Amino acid sequence: MSSSDKDAPKITVSKEIIWHMTCGACRYYWTVPTMSEADNPSRRSWTCPLCATTLDAIEQDV
Q1: Residue 5, pLDDT score
Q2: Is this model's pTM higher than 0.70 or not?
Q3: 62 in a domain, yes or no?
């Protein structure tokens, strides 16, 4: 690799994980993006952005 190859522009890549959330009270649907596999939303409770109900999150197999 020549020194000019080291300075050449590169395409950077990152992974985004998008979790799909549905409120159990009002059925409102929203998404939560993360960059880490460890950020699983089922590890805590969430408050619906529409009806303000707070519920535990449960991961669903698809």
Answers
A1: 75
A2: yes
A3: no
